[in-house]
Here is the input.
Amino acid sequence: MDIQEIAQEVISAHGGIARAADFVTAGVRETDVVKLCRAGYLTRIRHGYYCLADEEDISEERLLAALIPRGIVCVESALFHYGYSDFTPRRWSIAVPRTMSRTKLETEGLPLRVYYVQAEIHDLGKTSDSFQGVTLSVYDRERTVCDCFKYRARLDSELFSKALRAYAGDAEKNPGRLSAYARKLRVYNKMTPLMEVLLND
Here is the structure.
């Protein structure tokens, strides 16, 4: 098996995007990866990440999964995912730890709206789901609603109101979990009066 075939297998095994370290693990030297790029067989997406040069259209979902594995889909993007908003976001809203390097988020072809979150609450409500066939981390319904209150100043008022009403009518809602998250995220006092009215309506 030649280097091109090995490289193709590596990329295929990693969902269309592979790291330099993945090639090295498979026995392809970094100098060979550079040669494959110069030969027009591989394309460098970002430092240390590659795809096949004939891969015409890598979805934003695949880019997000491969390039920002610690990112969690949140706020506007999560609202749309759960059907709490019918407005398709122009950028992916993702939550990352505050300590994460800004340079790791500079990815061409992947429009982002980044929420920098304290490490102790970054994983609160984290789950995963399928986005166009790609598994991504996403905050659950309750964390998403709490974040609406946490970042209310950044949200359109109509989007905010519609999202809360949609959650109140969701058969999968979990009010107990919502209250628990609200306390940890310090939005309990401003969230409870409004949500009690909606949930008891």
Remarks:
- The first strand starts at residue 18 and ends at 19.
- The first helix runs from residue 3 to 13.
- Residues 23 and 133 are 25 Å apart (CA to CA).
- The radius of gyration is 20 Å.
